[in-house]
Description:
This protein is mainly alpha-helical. It has helices at about 10-25, 30-40, 40-55, 55-75, 80-85, 90-105, 105-115, 125-130, 135-140.
Amino acid sequence: MGSTRAPDHALVQLRRARDHADRHFAEPLDLEQLASVAALSKFHFHRLFTATYGRTPAEHLAERRIERAQDLLRATNLTVTEVCFAVGYSSLGSFSSRFTRIVGETPSAYQRRYGRDAPRIPGCHLFMSGVIERNCASREKPPAGSPS
């Protein structure tokens, strides 16, 4: 597979999409959206991004989300589930398996090990100040007996 780095004129477009993913990591992002930000077709964007950065756009986004999750698990009193939703995952299972693959231990084990001695920021302060959005509220099931 003889892929090469993107031509110089495309680097600005790739950086724009990478920066967009870094800023909006907690939002649902897909290949088509990122390619649109770069003003490239999704297949050309994927090929150039992977050749230039050594990882696919999806891998890059997952790494950003997991890095942010590590910060939240170390420095806040949020639960693993709240962190999962706050960094853009909609499935605790997907978050946990990706976290474990990248970090080498489960989110709970990571939080127990690195979060116990750190001063903790109450999660409610982060949600109220808008530092992180309360994405979990829209994903919670309605109480039993309430209309859906």
